[in-house]
């Protein structure tokens, strides 16, 4: 009893503020509920989504989002590793210096333009010019791979620089060529160092796939946009869409954390 | 110079010069390492001992001058340096075991990779000429065979240093002395003709120095040619046939251990030995 009295004596201002805020929120919520007629909107959404098979487009969309993000990441890792390794070759030869310039230009190009612009230019201009015709999803995989390659190359370069230079030296002293030393000794250790960052890159990639609708590929965003414009009701689809992205990203972030902990453990006991 | 070794030249440095920017680290060094010889390099820090050693297998590219190994100038950029480095083992101060591999993988890596690339090269050659095709058929080798041989040799080497039970452990679980001994047998797995030691005991706890020095002594007794940069004067005196005292990028004085340690001529040598002994 004494304790409760003391608590109120100390915190009465806070309690008042919280109560006032809660009242305001309740008032707004009630107003919004009647104004926007959530129940009716949910009915429209449900009707379209379940009864009229709107979910099928979402399933295609999720599949495409997964394909674009995963394949894009894999292509990105390949390109990024290649660029990072080229960039750490000491520039003794002319060829190396040209290769460095090409890599720098590539990274500047893909980091200097928005992904939407790259998609539009690639899909509507460059691929047709090269007489390549392909479904939009394939084009997206290629563009996203090229794009993430530029970002991953910088991450990978940091990873390679974080590996003790003695490792490369020891491999070279045994008579292994530069490429083999990199591939077998330095890059595996660099990848281990940058795995958490790579996870973030994957999450970023998943969120970036939201723009593939620009070239006519069906992804999660596009599926809900389609539904919104067909049912003339946008609120529910967009809220559900946001929720789906949050859940996906939360799951992947959890997996990354799990992996990180596993890696840390293998470091300790090795 | 002692008469116990034959006079075949193993490594010869001619006018070896190394500059970092305007800083002159090695100043026109001429030196010959003979087959079977054990050479210890001593000197104050910053005198260029390590740089000299690293120039001998071109881990550092000399700014000027030549390094002859097997009669080939390996300082020449057009020479395939990897082919020559196979025959020059090197041991580092910081061990530099590959952290992403187990002990046995560390030892097997170089023999297996080089064996594989040899097969690959023969296979590519065989595509283009009939003679090479016959040769390729007669090679009588395979990747599996190379791996098996490398594993056997690695286990034998581990047995020699009494660490065969550590074969499948990762380097992070080993003590410094164990790491350095494994780094030494990793170099030995390539059957090198000369071994370069770059302060092999400087990063070790005092109680582990002995086991590493014992292994090096053991190698010396087997007749391995070696060049050792070291701060262990007692060890240098015991093992080396010849001591090089370096100062200011030059070999200031050289001679047998007795000459250098008991009767140094150069005032810098006297000063250095007074400080460290």
Structural write-up:
The complex is a heterodimer of chains A (270) and B (277). Chain A is flat, with a radius of gyration of 26 Å. By secondary structure, chain A is mainly α. The model of chain A has no long low-confidence stretch (mean pLDDT 89). In chain A, 86% of the residues lie in helices and 0% in strands. With 277 residues, chain B is of the alpha/beta class. Chain B is built from ten helices and ten strands. In chain B, the strands form two sheets. Chain B has a six-stranded mixed beta sheet, sandwiched between helices. Chain B has a four-stranded antiparallel beta sheet with strand order 2-1-4-5, covered by helices on one side. Residues 1-5 of chain B have low confidence and may be disordered.
Question: Topology of this structure?
Answer:
The complex is a heterodimer of chains A (270) and B (277).
Chain A: H1 2-36, H2 38-51, H3 55-88, H4 94-112, H5 115-129, H6 136-162, H7 165-173, H8 178-208, H9 220-231, H10 235-269
Helix pairs in contact in A: 3-6, 3-8, 3-9, 4-6, 5-6, 6-8, 7-8, 8-10, 9-10
Chain B: E1 9-20, E2 23-34, E3 38-42, H1 49-56, E4 64-69, E5 72-73, H2 81-85, E6 88-91, H3 103-128, H4 130-138, H5 143-160, H6 176-188, E7 194-198, H7 206-221, E8 225-229, H8 233-239, E9 242-247, E10 250-255, H9 257-262, H10 267-276
Parallel strand pairs in B: 3-8, 3-9, 6-7, 7-8
Antiparallel strand pairs in B: 1-2, 1-4, 4-5, 9-10
Helix pairs in contact in B: 3-4, 3-5, 3-6, 6-7
Note the quaternary state here: heterodimer
| Uncertain spans of chain A | none
How big is the Rg of chain B? Answer: 20 Å
Order of strands across the main sheet of chain B: 6-7-8-3-9-10
Strand content of chain B: 15-25%
Helical content of chain A (DSSP H or I, runs of 4+): over 70%
Major sheet of chain A: none
Mean pLDDT of chain A: 89
How far apart are the first and last residues' alpha carbons of chain A, in Å?
A: 56 Å
What fold name stands as the CATH topology of chain A? MetI-like fold
Q: Classify the helix fraction of chain B into a percent range.
A: 40-55%
Alpha-beta content class of chain A:
mainly alpha
Q: Which CATH top level class of chain A fits?
A: Mainly Alpha
Number of helical regions of chain B = 10
